[in-house]
Amino acid sequence: MPTVEEMRAQEVWNNCAIRSAFSGVVGGGLGIFMGFLLGALDNPLMHDPDMSAKKQFIFTAKQMGSRSWSNCKTFALMGLVFSAAECVIEKARAKHDVTNTAVAGCVTGGAMSARAGPQAACYGCAGFAAFSVLIEKFIDRHS
User: Fold this and answer.
1) Where are the transmembrane segments (predicted)?
2) Which residues of 70-104 are buried (b: 16+ CB within 10 A; e: fewer)?
3) CA distance linking residue 88 with residue 90, whole number of Å
4) What is the distance between the alpha carbons of residues 41 and 4, in angstroms, rounded to a whole number?
């Protein structure tokens, strides 16, 4: 039997707004990490082979910062949209299965690529839904 504190914590976590906000924050943190990693891998000598070590360091630091901010926004939005869609769909269907993941992936992929037009939104929907289902099957949360 769960304690009162455990039941309250579960009630808080079942709130779609809280779950989505948390996913957005965690996604943003992952984006910052990925930006630092990918920004550090950019070779400044490809841009100017005659750069001094100091200029290379400054260039790399700027690349890391700009990539981190860009990836932070992207991953935060992705986490927020996916989590919100999955939570709302799960509550509407009153089921916890892989269909929720597929539809949430479609919504997220479509929303993330909608600026590029309807065809890109369709490809984004299909691609992100397939990726979400594969990850879900790999993790095997719903068995």
Assistant:
1) 20-41
2) ebbebbbbbbbbbbbbbbbbbeeeeeeebebbbbb
3) 5
4) 49
